[in-house]
Every structure is written in structure tokens, then in C-alpha cells.
Amino acid sequence: MELKIEKKEKNLLSIRVYGETYTLLDPLTDVLLRMDGVEFAGYDVPHPLKEEGVLTVRTRDGVSPDKVILEALNKLKAEFGKIKPDVEQQLKKVG
Q1: Residue 95, SS3?
Q2: How many C-beta atoms surround the C-beta of residue 21 within 10 A?
Q3: Residues 36 and 67: beta-carbon distance below 8 Å
Q4: Cross-strand bridge partners of residue 88
Q5: In contact, 58 and 11? CB cutoff 8 Å
Q6: What is the pTM assigned to this prediction?
Q7: Which of 2, 26, 54, 77 is most buried, by CB atoms within 10 Å?
Q8: Domain residue ranges in the chain
């Protein structure tokens, strides 16, 4: 995965993410929208045949978009980490 900062302002950050589309950007946007201090979070996949998307986050005054993105990634990692033991347990029952 490769990243490129498209736009960076005090309360706005747009990042082009190469090698990812809906799989990462949709759940990340969902987590961001549930966070305090986030006014807007969304993504765009400019071309359906290219593996890239643009994540945009706008925050309220005093809230760093950089920090909320990192916090959202940590929350997402924790959420998916909780699923693994449940899946492993169910697979042992079946197999």
C-alpha cells in the first residue's frame, strides 16, 4: 500500500491510497464518522478498475485530522482483532 497526501489544511486531510479501495476505506470511514470531533469523513474511488481511493476527513477546530485517522485505524484494528478468536472457536467446532 502506498499513500500520497493530496491536501492538508488545519482541519482537513485528503489522502490518496494506492492498492486499496472499498475494503479498507469503507470500514475506516464508518469508524471516523462515529468519532467526536469529526465533521466529515468520506472516500472516493475515482475509477472502478484502478486499485486506489481518496480518503477525506474534516474535523472541528482544535481536532487534528492526522490524529483522528490514526485513532480510527487503531479502533478498526481492535474491532477486527476481536473477531479472530470467535472465528477460530467456530472453526474448531466444525472441523
Answers
A1: coil
A2: 18
A3: no
A4: none
A5: yes
A6: 0.87
A7: 54
A8: 2-94
User: What would the pLDDT profile of 11-68 be if each residue is shown by its tens digit?
Assistant: 999 999 999 989 999 999 999 999 999 999 999 999 989 999 999 999 999 999 999 9
Grid cell, residue 58, equals: 474534516
- DSSP summary character for residue 79: H
- Which residues have a Cβ under 8 Å from the Cβ of 65 and sit 6 or more positions away? 11, 12, 13, 57, 58, 59
Nearest partner of 26 among 66, 83, 76, judged by Cα: 76
User: Helices 22-33 and 65-94: crossing angle, nearest 10°?
Assistant: 120
Q: For the segment 60-83, what is each residue's pLDDT rounded down to a tens digit?
A: 999 999 999 999 999 999 988 888
C-beta of residue 19 within 8 angstroms of C-beta of residue 2: yes
> Three-state secondary structure along 1-68?
CEEEEEEEECCEEEEEEECCCHHHHHHHHHHHHCCCCEEEEEEECCCCCCCEEEEEEEECCCCCHHHH
DSSP assignment letter at 83: H
